[in-house]
Amino acid sequence: MKKDRKIAKAAAIQYNPDNHKAPVVIATGTGTQAERILELAKEHNIPLQEDTVLIEALMKLDIGEEVPVELYQVVAEVLVYIRKLNQQAKAY
């Protein structure tokens, strides 16, 4: 019997307040593309946050598109989480 395997999905956002009023989608992918996005994030010490609902929503956006207002709350929570991780890393 074949075991159902979950297909990897990933999305990456970037926030630069000098260039955009909201975070921008810079990468999305499934399968090997998603695995590569995750590998690159790990190689560059970019914190990862797993949120299936957010990934699904971000994957519907085009690369370069700003995150819509409806996703601000959840994206803000992710950014706060990442800021805390960065502060903890600097403390060591």
From TrEMBL:
Transmembrane segments: none annotated. Pfam families: Bac_export_2. One of its GO terms (biological process) is protein secretion. Gene3D superfamilies: secretion proteins EscU (3.40.1690.10). GO terms for cellular component: plasma membrane. InterPro entries: T3SS_substrate_exporter, T3SS_substrate_exporter_C. This is FhlB domain-containing protein. It comes from Desulfuribacillus alkaliarsenatis. The lineage of its organism: Bacteria, Bacillati, Bacillota, Desulfuribacillia, Desulfuribacillales.
